[in-house]
Fold these 4 entries.
Entry 1:
Amino acid sequence: MRAALTSHDYGAVGYRRPSLGVSARIRHRLRLEPGLAAVTIGLIFGVGTGVALTVSPVLAAGIAGAAAVLAVAAFFDLFGLAVLLTGVLPWLIVLSNVLPRLTLTLVAGATVVVLLALTKPRDDGSKEGLLLRLGMLLFVSPILLSLARDGLSVGANQAVKFIVFPLMVLIVSEGRNRDVLARLRTVALWSSVAALAVNLFLGFSGIANIGYYHTGEILGLASEHVLALLAGVVTAAALASGLTLTWAPIIAMGAIATVATGVRSPLPGLAAAALLRMISGRVRLRMILLVGVAVGAIFVSGAAGVVEKRFHQGEKRGEYQSLSDVGSGRGHIYSAALDGWRASPPLDWFVGAGLTAVLRFENERLGQAFVGHSDAVEALVGLGVVGLLGLLLIWRVLIARAEVKLPLVVLGCFAAFNGVLEYSAPVIIAVLLTFRALPQRAPAVEPDPGASRHPESGASVALRPAG
């Protein structure tokens, strides 16, 4: 007897969900207790309004966003909602400079919640599973302590950003529905490729291009760092997939998009990823050719001139005269944050000075509220030794369990020199891209009409005419 398939058997071979027209689907959904759904969503909006007036506009916006997600979920199943959110993230990234500030954070938070509900991560009893849970406990505990100490209105937005990374590692490393994760990985990759291509077209054509460094960078309508991180990890993922020359345009486009942002943090990681792929990958000559095409495209497009101008710009500012001035003054930024942490009470050395401590210390010592520009600095100052140890354990598990390593080279480089905890939306895409894509199924073999079954083994045996 054939077992019944439920709506969650998305990976079942040969299974297709019944197709309904739009009107029939809406009527079907509206029959599912519309009164209860309306009351629930209305209550959530009411609570959100109340919170906005009394506690935190950030939390209120999050609750209102959750209500909107519930409304969308009334017409889509959980998998459809995950596809929708994952597919829209890259487009929000390339529009990040013209969207309200909290848009990416709220959508990224909603995406993680839906992915958790869909994949249902479960501890497999392994050493990595234990280390991941220990790391998450050490990393999240100082965050909760900071919220309790400073209030939701101070650190809620930062807390949502920070928690996205460990939750995505949990989803990818221990999510039970592996087939769904592979499909979402495909959605994330190709939606990102399309979004980056459109953004490059807007920038190169002059239809829309927002400058930041004034070195001729091509940003389109995106913010520079969030765009650079997305483009860098997508290029690394394409390099990992590029076994045929058909990937050459994708790799070249991603490389141009990364370099043309003018952001230098992903460049060492992208160069290292390309070198590793050429050395260790199969069909080395083909990989060398693909990387050569990408490098040539960078120079032909003029993107290389952006990096050159940034170098000369930094030289005029004296960036290369001392370690403190290197990287737009990162040495001064690190020193100010760490000096403030060392001057804090001893308890803060262990559990951190708070989620917004780096901004506070930078403003006090440098006169401007810089972020930490490194996840290690952000975690140590804001979450203490406990939080930094937790972050390192989470990274250790991600590196061990990632099926595609190259995106981690770019992500890790960005984390060290600029920080990725601040950029929750591209972090979701990056961690998803470390998951292996679905293997292509072999085409069904047509039965040989001249074959019969062996009487004992049951194997097909071709019957050939005698002689």
Entry 2:
Amino acid sequence: MRVLHVSGAKGWGGNEQQMVDLIPELSKLGVGNFVFGIENSLLHNECLNRKISFISSKNDKLNTLLNYRYLKTIVKEIKPDLIHLHTSDSLTVFTISDLLFGLKTKTVFSKKGMGTSSSFLSKLKYNYKGIDSIICVSNSVQRDLGIMLNNISKSKTMVIHDCVSLDILNVKANINLRETFDIPYNFKIIGNIANHTNAKDLPTFLNVVDYVINELKNTDIKFVQIGEFTESTSELKQIVKNKKLDQYIFFTDKIKSASSVLNQFDLFLLTSQREGGPTSVLEAMLQGIPVISTEVGLIPEVIQNGENGFFTPIKSVALLAEKIVLLLSNEKLQKQFSAFNIEKVKEQFLAPYIARETFTEYLRILKL
């Protein structure tokens, strides 16, 4: 079986990590994998590092007329049994290319998350008849996407969760948080990994910090936020300054192999208002880090409230803060959450397990 994976990603996030974790496991199952993406992108570089065959797009943007035609050429030359689309723009390119040139290849689209709104054109491509299967990363994504789909397209959806690789346990961190930010060893570290985008709702993260420190008077805690800076970063830093939290919250910007820093956290805090996964929660769980999160993405599917973590409605600042204080004051509960999480991820969310589910879906579509 030959599979052409298509992605328009230039940066790096959970989606790209999923691809490079999944593809080697698919190879072990006998799949020949090729990636069509942006030249010199982070995905391109990682594929080179992992010896994954990579085909560069005609320019630095996937969704262009040149690439509509080029996709047809690639399909003709490689003759993939199946095309796997991993980003929204890859779905656009496939749809237009198929309408113009008739690719005649079975196709899967992976839907990783939902925005706050979708255009008329988005609805058209999500319902495109040339898509044979839509793999949703969580039940919530399947539910929310279903609102936009007709009955035929809705019947094509299924859920296959994100995966994590045991390899992250062997990656050495290139930053020591306690040394870098002069955090005393008797202080707890609460961490978050999220790029500075609206979906991650980092203002709520900062409001939780404020509530823990200034309302609940827990001043022996430091917060570390890891994620790529954007145009929103200056606003976040201004919130920190206004609330006089400079000595309690530290921003690192994007760091290489962020998952390698997770074992330096005493607790992982997620305050997103929209998620597909996220992978970072699974990575934290694999490393035995207790998780407190808003109720987004796959969180309700991996966390049972009070048994292996806590989750709250989005923007529940006071409740999130209270759960933090409760958990950090209960060492027995921390150990319970840690043990449960490691076992759950190893049993259900490791890359080989998710690769087998994906391969089974490939076989179903190809009727093999």
Entry 3:
Amino acid sequence: MPLIIGNFNVARTALAGLFYLGAMNVTATAQEMNALALSNGAVLKSYTSEYGGRGSSEWIALALIDGNPAVGWSSEQFKSAPNEFLFELERDFSLKSFSFDNTRTDEPTHPGISAKSIEIYVSADSEKGPYKKIISGEIAAGSVSEVALPEPVAARWVKLVIAGNGGHQEYTELMEFSAIGVPLEERAPSQNFTGVYDTNWGRFFLKHKDGELDGCYDHDAGTFSGKQVDGLMNIEWRETGDQTGSAALAITDDGTSFSGLWYENAQLQGTWAGVLSADQLSKPACAVSLVEKKKTQVAAALDTYGVAKLYGIYFDFDSDAIKPASAKTLADVKAWLAANPGKTVVFEGHTDAKGSDDYNQTLSAKRAAAVVLWLSANGIGLNRLSHTGHGEAFPVADNSTENGRSLNRRVEMKVLN
């Protein structure tokens, strides 16, 4: 028989002792994390419907895991239920709790629109299953409903089914969906993968090697470059004319699919998602030049645009200490300066919006100075190098989510002559 505790029905064969905590807070410890966060590498594999689309900044399926409770998901009109979402976690997790945020839905003006009846299934074997139902019940409108699992469950894929709302006939809404857990394995080393993807912005060619990303796509002669940081691809994109922006994309460890958010003028604009194409022969025209590209990413950006966003330079938290993982990018910067002895450059530090303006400005200046000191200690004359800090003054993404904040934390290198 099913075990009925609070508002949830759970098969005793799936999990024993599940209980409902209503609006109480189930928070992650220092060793735990939100396994369903886009910023932690979770990929939205599929969904039934969404009100927004690829060029919408609200009411999109990916908003369920963006970490911003002010932006959420809505179904398409007259597709209020059922709605199903499939997520792939960045690695295997032991999950201990789930959370559903209905606090900022349109419930006050559209009674019954909040998600109510939900089911959760998990699989530790494959995307195709088998899946085990671990939760079936109702969540509350106007609050955060949380379910704690005293006996954690292993999962790599999580399926959320919203089976019904509070009675609204046209739409269903939910703001956030999260799962707190502990990784069951070490983060896998980044694989090198290159290929063609079918995306919601046309055919997309990705060149990936040793954490560096270059690519192009069919929409508006688009090109991009960036870095893979754990399960995320932080990229800068450019299109015809002066259009440029950034994106934070989570990609599965086998490189078969990705999903994420794109920004322009420091504002969220929409979603970017794709799957590895069955047709790897029909590459966008620009793919040939990318495959044959000889310059480093730093050299290509400086030679073409006179500026490079150095996402490959990493610092300890709240510090100007450069991490060892920065070695490749620092070596590329040094190599370009050595090959261009007549050039002078400035390094500009940027932070996210956490902390005070003064503190962020000071930290950003210290980080830019740390890059200059490293180069000076490695043979580049100080007379060619300068630095400054801009703090949070010039974001390239919004600061409401960790994805946007990660894009804003950067050092930029600009050629002065």
Entry 4:
Amino acid sequence: MTDAPGFNAWHADVANSPACALIFQQALGLPPQVVSNSLLTGAGIAEVAAALQVAPGQILIDLACGRGGYGREVARRTDACLVGLDFSAVAVAIAAQGGPGSRARFCVGDFTGLGVRDHSAHAVMCIDAIQFSDPPLAALRECCRILASRSRLAVTAWEPCGPVQEGVPERLRQMNLARHLLEAGFEQIEVTEKPDWYAAERTLWEAALQADTSGDPALVSLQEEAAQALAAFDVKRRVLATATAPAQAA
């Protein structure tokens, strides 16, 4: 599922599936107000918020924001002004309706066509989605373009950690955030493995496989994804990558 229509259908289905939402909330330890459309844990949200170093009133871009839950929560914790961008019009429409946040707005945007002015953002987050850019380097260069001098980027993703099996999607086979971020122009790059996040993800996939999918297309999709993810679970690692945009000439 890498096209906008596929994601549109997924977001619409999940938005109408309380059972699916409960699996995500319980497995990932999410605060009750957070709408999840990805696999970041509650503890991970706190780490991303801290890594961004965004100040109250500054502009936070949530790239590939989905239904907006993670970006809203980071903005709530930092008091930043949130701009969420996603190529799924359905996700953006749901995000715009989802909960309090007068300084949050959501727009349709592509990884390499963000519609954001050069050096105008004070932080960028991208949760579990950078692999959908073709190639990831192009999206990271766009992030570097829009970030103000010495501002921060936080990306959560997966990388291969050994011989990669045929069943692993090509977009994950090619992930190397340390190299990609350096080539995109970032500085102070750190890529940290997060085994606790990955353990929570396994819990989520296993819970999905045990769920009763009767009449719930979101759970059917989640079970299909769970089977694929668990089949290749041991050849990937879960990471948080952080980096700083270079200083701009005065």
